[in-house]
# Entry
Amino acid sequence: MNDHSLSIFLLSFYTASINPPPVMAMVNLRMPPLPVPIQPLSISRMPHPQLPIRGPNIHVPSAMAPAGAGASLPAGSVGYTPWHLQYAVQCEHWQRVAHRPPPAETISLEVSALYESGVRKKGLRGNPIRNICKGLKDINALASAAELVDIALRTITPRIQAFRPEFLWRDSEFVVRDAMWVDLFRHSLTSNEPYFYAQCLHPATRKNSRAMVFKAKQFSLYVVVPASQWQELEAFQEKLDDTAVAGTSMFP
# Structure
């Protein structure tokens, strides 16, 4: 830059500093509103109440319940009952029923509970226990003595236990007998043949025919409590009665 140019620049700077440019007033200008601070959502630290978990309503008939049906549930099992422990047993039972077609030839059973003690009623070799009796239909006519024993015990044993639930029954001593007083368990040790099937076969009505025709019949079975166990039950009942009488005599 030469001396002439420098002189012009200094003159222009001096003139601008003495006479600054006019300032225009800002009229009716509005400032934008300040942003409203957003409050953060308050998060409660209180724990939410935990709703109880309820399971399905499952009922198992007492005759189907295996040993251990009264087992206790694990701690924290809310809404469940001991019957839920038998869910797997029920599934297995109904799977067997679903995949096994009904027998073509069936019989009916009348299963009763008796005890061997005291004076017997006419026509019976034991005394009935209350009115414990159950009729069963559609029983396979080819059932062996061992299978009939299992059917009779599963049907009547829970009813005998409910007759005096406070007494410690020994159901392993119960004996299953037929109308001829045959011990079916002892019979099953020597024979696995169908027990009642032969009694359902009758000659055909056609002349000169040797064919046999199956006709359904009803048979009686008895679950018998031995005399020794029944005497223990009577002594147990007398003790309970004496305790009850002694308790009432303490009050005027």
